[in-house]
Amino acid sequence: MILTTPAQESYTRFSCPNPHCAQCNRPGTGHSAHRSWTGKARHIERLRCTLCHRECSEREGTLMARSKLPEATVEQLLQCQRWGVCDEGTADICAVDLKTVHRFQRVAAHRAQTHHQAGRATGGRHGRADG
Predict the structure, then answer these.
(1) Are 26 and 67 contained in the same domain?
(2) By the 8 A CB rule, do 47 and 33 touch?
(3) 128 with 118: CB under 8 angstroms?
(4) Which of 70, 90, 66 is nearest to 80 (CA)?
(5) Which strands sit side by side in the sheet containing 44-49, from one edge to the other?
(6) In a domain, 119, yes or no
(7) Domain count, the chain
(8) 50 in a domain, yes or no?
(9) pLDDT in tens, the chain (131 residues)
(10) CB neighbours (10 Å) of residue 45?
């Protein structure tokens, strides 16, 4: 697989994570630019805000942030949680350590709480397509 710098249009879904930047959490403005590739297989993009010049991973703010797990494993973990599989069963099905399951649950809970609080701060419209 040959990695190339993608077209600029693909960066409109990203936004600057810097709370001091005018474009913080404002996707669609096109102020993110490709910086480099990272990860073992060089499959994760590093992005740079063209206004404040802060760099971040394309995974920042997601369940995959700072995770070394393959995406397929994270999807399995999510499915097991959704189906109500016990922690030990989830670890067995996903072939991960029980501590990994507990860490994933903590990260997912924190992410959900942050998202919920952001939605309340914006009048309940955060993340909803029906407005």
Answers:
(1) no
(2) yes
(3) no
(4) 90
(5) 32-38, 44-49, 55-57
(6) yes
(7) 2
(8) yes
(9) 455 555 555 666 677 777 788 777 777 777 777 777 877 777 777 888 887 878 777 767 677 777 778 889 989 999 999 999 999 999 999 999 999 999 999 988 887 887 677 666 666 544 444 44
(10) 22
DSSP annotation of 94 reads H
Asked if the structure places residue 79 within a domain, the reply is yes
**Which residue, chain included where needed, has tokens 């403005």?**
29
How far apart (Å, rounded) are the C-alpha atoms in residues 126 and 131?
8
Scanning the chain, the segments in alpha helix (DSSP H) are: 71-83, 87-94, 98-121
The pTM is what? 0.59
Cα(127)–Cα(17) distance, rounded to whole angstroms?
16
- 120 with 68, same domain: the answer is yes
User: For residue 24, what are the domain limits?
Assistant: 7-60
Query: Is there a single domain that holds both residue 49 and residue 94?
Result: no
Q: Is residue 129 part of a domain?
A: no
The beta-carbon contacts of 41-47 under 8 Å, at least 24 apart in sequence, are 42/3, 43/3, 45/6, 47/11, 47/14
Q: Token pair of 10, please?
A: 């693909």
Strand, helix or coil at 67? coil
